[in-house]
Amino acid sequence: xxxxxxxxxxxxxxxxxxxxxxxxxxxxxxxxxxxxxxxxxxxxxxxxxxxxxxxxxxxxxxxxxxxxxxxxxxxxxxxxxxxxxxxxxxxxxxxxxxxxxxxxxxxxxxxxxxxxxxxxxxxxxxxxxxxxxxxxxxxxxxxxxxx
Length: 147
Hints:
Blueprint: H1 4-11, E1 26-29, E2 32-36, E3 50-55, E4 58-60, E5 66-73, E6 80-83, E7 86-88, E8 91-92, E9 98-102, E10 111-119, E11 122-123, E12 127-132, E13 144-145
Parallel strand pairs: 4-12
Antiparallel strand pairs: 1-2, 3-5, 3-13, 5-9, 6-7, 6-10, 8-9, 10-11, 10-12
């Protein structure tokens, strides 16, 4: 059923904007966690990230806040650092590393946690990060490399 008013309204509608093309169907914003739209279209092949090192790889419980830098392969603007079981706000740096903030004051006792990188549904192999007891020499190692 078509009316003159309906036809006139259609003629005055603004054209719909086309979404920008992306390498992967990821979305990220400063106010929302980084996410990937699932299910992925059939023609999308998401590369598996690989960690080659983290810096530092340890700290003491209660140390000052710092940035953790992760080096590796297949890192993108929408890659996410998964630290101690949680997705963290992640920055892709100009040198190709990823970084996120770590707050050692939030930990109350020594523990080893895992660091992984997520590219949507693809996840790297884990690398250990150590929260050592305050005042121990093991707390300030740096630049752990995977073998």
